[in-house]
Amino acid sequence: MKTKALLVLLSLLLSSGCIKAQLIADTLFDEEVIIMYAEPPESKTFYTGLHGGLYYSAMELIPVQEDFFGRLFEDKNIPAVDLFPVHYLANISFMRNRMYSGISYSSTSSGNVEKNDSLISELNQYSLAAKSGYNFVVHKSVVVSSFAGLRYTRFKHLTNLRKRNLSLDEYLENPGIDLRVSQFSAEVGLNASFPINKNYSIQVFVSYLMGLDNYPIIRSDGNRIHEDIINPVKNNIIFGLSFGAGSHDFWD
Question: Which of 24, 47, 188, 192 has the fewest CB atoms within 10 Å of its CB?
């Protein structure tokens, strides 16, 4: 009887131990499944940014054919002003989550060139650009955007007699020269914005320019002039740097 009782007790203990072990295994397995398949809640960060850079705090370097007007005039004894690559820049960029857009205006004046005692030339140049793109890096320390856009660049070359007061005969013998050379270019590149605080930021951009035509548009005050000459703006890389005011807000 004692032996039978011990055997029954032992069998009950073993069966209860197996049931408990199975429960523990089932619990661990269930927890493992939960850990493996549970997805963390999605975290969304929203961003709005605005940057504005102004003259003397922003500039861009445009790849130009510096001797363009020297080639255009050849040996006509007209003082030619070289194109200047550095432009003072005024730009505005707006960013919203993944969207980037921007416009800019830059200009420079190369001053006067005097080649002889009778003539003086001066050159004014400016560039307009509109861009749109995608913010593929959005972080509180940097926002990086890819963009594509269109750029219009114009050069105005004026040549006149150095003498301020002229007779009519002197003017008719040496009329002034007014040439306006313009070019459209496509532009693709990258823009990086570095917020300093909520009110100021630094922008750096690099892009590649591609002329939309083989020859520039040449005009005078009232005429369209046809001449097969290389574009004044090269198919090359353009750099820009802008320190300005704005706002950069992140929220969940």
Answer: 24
Q: Give 129's strand partners.
A: 104, 151
Please name the amino acid found at residue 84.
F
Contact 212, 184 (CB under 8 A): yes
Per-residue pLDDT tens digits for 118-143: 888 899 999 999 999 999 988 888 99
Of 129, 119, 105, 116, which is closest to residue 157 (Cα–Cα)? Answer: 119
User: Which residue intervals of 151-241 are DSSP H helices?
Assistant: 168-173
Amino acid occupying residue 124? N
d(CA 67, CA 166): 31
Q: Hey, CA dihedral for 65, 67, 72, 78, is it positive or negative?
A: positive
133 touches 93 (CB < 8 A): no
d(CA 77, CA 2): 132
- In sequence order, what are the beta bridge partners of 49? 95, 248
- Chain length of the chain: 252
